[in-house]
Amino acid sequence: MAESRQPGLLAEFWQFLKHNKKWWLLPILLALLALGALVVLSSSALAPFIYPIG
């Protein structure tokens, strides 16, 4: 049993949502991921395309 492969973070989170019926957590998680992506992209070379000037 110790050699069996553990599920990944996303698979485990998906099972948690299905088992506990916590579907309201999904939009919060998606919003946090989008905000994180925006922060990462704002410090990259793509920033002028995300924040166009006037």
Structure overview:
The protein has 54 residues and is mainly alpha-helical. Helices cover 63% and strands 0% of the residues. It is built from 3 helices and no strands. The longest helix is centred in the middle third of the chain and has 18 residues, at 25-42. The N and C termini lie far apart (60 Å).
Uncertain stretches:
none
Radius of gyration, in Å, reads 17 Å
- Mean pLDDT over all positions: 81
Instruction: Please provide the ordered H/E string of secondary-structure elements.
Output: HHH
* Total number of strands: 0
Count of helical regions:
3
- Backbone shape: elongated
Task: Give me the oligomer status.
Answer: single chain
Brief overview:
With 54 residues, the chain is mostly helical. The chain has helices spanning 9-20, 25-42, 47-50.
Write the layout of secondary structure elements.
Layout: H1 9-20, H2 25-42, H3 47-50
Based on the model shown, name its key terms:
54 residues; single chain; 3 helices
